[in-house]
Amino acid sequence: MLKVGDQAPDFSLQTAAGEVFRLSEVLKKNNVVIYFYPKDDTRGCTAQACSFRDQYDVFRENNAEVVGISSDDVQSHQQFSAKHQLPFTLLSDAKGEVRKLYRVPRTFGIVPGRVTYLIDKKGIIRYSFNSQLKPLEHVSGTLEILKTLN
Length: 150
Prior knowledge:
This protein is about 35% helix and about 25% strand. By secondary structure, it is α/β, with parallel strands linked by helices. Helix 2 runs parallel beside helix 6 (about 135-150). The mean pLDDT is about 95. This is thioredoxin-dependent peroxiredoxin.
């Protein structure tokens, strides 16, 4: 995994809306929370996404944008986002290239990992959390650190 204090690698991926998301462009205006998750519409991933959704206004009040990344395709992201009314961006990393850039480990060597990074406007990682089994702690821990950045 990347560590606190590391420079976050820049990347571009397609959004569920078919647009191109570029990290460096978003960092010009906001801190960014990137959370990598295993799969759309699974129990833990849905709980995590809905927790980010429920706290989204707090993230925005603290100058942060939330971005979810999995290897699911754009159509899956569109359905997942609509079903759960997610107000933030989901990105498709079908080839796992961004997951590799961010050194997100696999669980048991096979399940895509669940890792969250908080990146400040300068592109520096200020928080990282890795836990497959505690999806809600990704949200609370990130918010706690985010509030200290302002």
